[in-house]
Amino acid sequence: MLEEKSISLAKQDFPNIVRQAAKGHETITRNFKSLNHEKVSIISTDIFEEILDRGYKFNPTIEEDLDGQGYTISIDELLIHGEGSTLISALKDLAENLMDYTEDYLNRVDFFRQIENRKHHYPYLRRIARLTDIDQVMEVIAECHTSLQQAILNQSQKG
Predict the structure, then answer these.
(1) 49-94, pLDDT tens digit by residue?
(2) One matching Pfam family, short form (predicted)?
């Protein structure tokens, strides 16, 4: 089982805790004097991101406009969508909206974590936060959707 350390012990042993985290060990700290006993894990960023990559994949849905003049792609997990005249333009719009939402959410995480239908968004958005450009965001959105993967591939072959 994982051992929990008090905050005061963790402060004293922090350099060792960081070295251990880098090797793959997790340390859980908590304030035993607090009534709510909130816990904090100290874990390697690589391990944390691996957990996010495996467990928090996007499941976008694509809807073609009734008149066939465009597309809407939605990520229901995050209550966000993008629109465009082509599949790739809708995906790009979605990626831009997702990047904007990620920035807003992470800047105001304490606010969003209080909203019932948004508090679970953090792990999805944390995945996006480490990406450096819109193409990477589009690839992460499309990783579980073959039509979107094909649209990206076709776009890259054109340009």
Answers:
(1) 999 999 999 999 999 988 878 999 999 999 999 999 999 999 999 9
(2) PHD_like
Q: Show the domains of the chain with their CATH numbers.
A: 4-43 (no CATH), 55-158 (3.30.160.620)
Residues 6+ apart with CB under 8 A from 59: 75, 76, 77, 144, 145
Residue 55 corresponds to which tokens in the numbers above?
A: 């467990």
Half-sphere exposure of 125 (CA within 13 A, CB side): 25
In this prediction the pTM is: 0.86
For the chain, give the DSSP string.
---EEEHHHHHHTHHHHHHHHHTT--EEEE-TTSSS--EEEE--HHHHHHHHHHH-----EEEE-TTSS-EEEEETTTTEEEEESSHHHHHHHHHHHHHHHHHHHHHTHHHHTTSTTTGGGHHHHHHHHT--SHHHHHHHHHTT-HHHHHHHHHHHHH-
Two structure tokens written together for 150: 């094909």
C-alpha span between 143 and 25 (Å, rounded): 29
**Do the beta carbons of residue 37 and residue 44 sit within 8 Å?**
no
